[in-house]
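Q: What changes when arginine is included in the input?
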Amino acid sequence: MDNPAGKKLWGGRFTQGVAKSVEAYTESISFDWRLWQFDIEGSKAHAKMLAKQQIITDSDASAILKGLDEIAGEIRAGSFVFRQELEDVHMNVESALIDRIGDPGRKLHTARSRNDQVALDVRLYVRAGIKEVQRLIREFQRTLVSVAEENVHCIMPGYTHMQRAQPVTLAHHLLAYVEMLARDYERFDDAYKRADSLPLGACALAGTTLAVDRDFVADTLGFSRMCENSMDAVSDRDFVIEFISNSSIVMMHLSRMAEEIVLWATKEFAFIEISDAYTTGSSIMPQKKNPDIAELLRGKTARVYGSLMSILTLMKALPLTYNRDMQEDKLPMFDTADTVTASLFMINEMFQAIAFDVKRMYETASGGFALATDLAEYLVNKGVPFRSAHEITGRCVRYCIENKKELHELTLEEFKTFSGVIEADVYVFVQLEKSVELKSSRGGTSPDEVARQIARLKEDLSVRLY
Ligand code: ARG
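A: The predicted holo structure follows.
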């Protein structure tokens, strides 16, 4: 069952090798191999620094850089074999380097520990992950804004409590999501600042006696800040938590849209039709055309929340500094990055495959007394206190329900039985287009205001893309 102890890079103090079962339980190479690019990038920066500081020779450094590039080439080409007995990506790369170039390779790990090395790799991964999520957020925002632009005059019911509340435009509804995504984007900007801090140089936990130049490494790897406390540097995974937390909020937003897509695609709503390429059928019911992407997006939101709970629990009450528990940070991190990027990508594609039934939306907005608030505001304009206007309008609605009429179908005589101030100009107020047009308060649903918002967003979305 045992392996020869000498095989391990850390095997010096051991007389006996590790049991195979332990290797299988403790390995992380099956998932952390995904960090290889960042691991090599970090090692190259480290080697350059060691040479600059004359801790290793220039020729050692050249051999290391060349060896690492060759290893990168093999991994990229798929010919590199990751070995479980070498535990993780760090040892796999380092051991391949030593096999390849001999002694200079044995110098790479000078003034470095896997503790600061893994912290670096994970920070590099999170930085790249943030940029990718932000790119996809921007793309989806652009899609939403362009669909909104085509639907500035498309009137639909706005809901509260899932009851028809007031008419709005489809553009206005879509721009609400653009705003949510703008905040999500900003949250990632903020998270980036904290991920963008160099942990390398902390070594195991206490720093090093060797004359390292951490600023050089930070510059080489494009870090704008430095982890100033070596113990914090190897202990901190807050930035992973923030990445997953921000991703959870994105997924929460996307799941709300997904839910609306599911509802709107029902025969009951029939506001949209998703093109065949983005729906699936049923194996038993021939008539079915299911909005599976939207449903799965709702479902995958649970996965990301699970990852958030998992990493918060993982880090809870861990004593300083590094603990092996922390190796488990990568699974929720990778799964979150995969899920949030795939979800943003899919919803963006699917959204472009949606046809809106604007006629049906308009008709749905017409019924159900969605203009009652407008009638109340009409009365306010005539000098009636709002509470009284609310009461009068409520009585009008009850009368309409009893007489199976809509508000605009009441005669002026009927209107006048509720309030003497009502004149013929009331009909303008109880008209859908007018109702929407008059909601011109800042942030309101009037086409003019929405057009202004679209212009602002288009400016933002083009300027603020890094
Ligand atoms: N695979 C480890 C991780 O992901 C690397 C750091 C291990 N450090 C150690 N001292 N065992 O956390």
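Observations recorded in class: The first helix runs from residue 20 to 26.
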